[in-house]
Amino acid sequence: MHLRDFQQQIEALYGVRDRRRGTDATFRWLTEEVGELARALRSRDPQALREEISDVLAWTVSVATLMGVDTEAAISRYAEGCPKCGRNPCMCPEPPR
Ligand SMILES: [Zn+2]
Fold first, then answer.
1. Ligand 1: distance of its center to the CA of 32 in Å?
2. I need a labelling partner for 37 at 20 to 30 A (CA). Which of 26, 53, 59, 75 fits?
């Protein structure tokens, strides 16, 4: 499945609800799903990881749709290399932690 097809599927599944809920509340759901992904990472359960990754992607795509962002067009900025330094692999300096 291409990302554009995924975005269309998520729109078909949840578009009405997402628009009714609005961008701010949909974004809050996305942040909750990121928290669930954090728990799945700690659990190291492959099934849970797969589910939480797909949920984070789905909620990200919902936010994109609500804001009129074509996700496949958006990710094309990574197609030729790092969007910042243009290299592949990225040669940007690591930010201090
Ligand atoms: Zn870079």
1. 29
2. 75
Ligand 1 mean position, distance from CA 94 (Å): 9
Q: Output the CA 71–ligand 1 centroid distance in Å.
A: 21
Question: 18-75 pLDDT, tens per residue?
Answer: 999 999 999 999 999 999 999 999 999 999 999 999 999 999 999 999 999 999 999 9
pTM: 0.92
* Tokens representing residue 97 in the block: 């932690």
The residue count of the chain comes to 97
Name the residue among 40, 76, 70 with its Cα closest to residue 55: 40
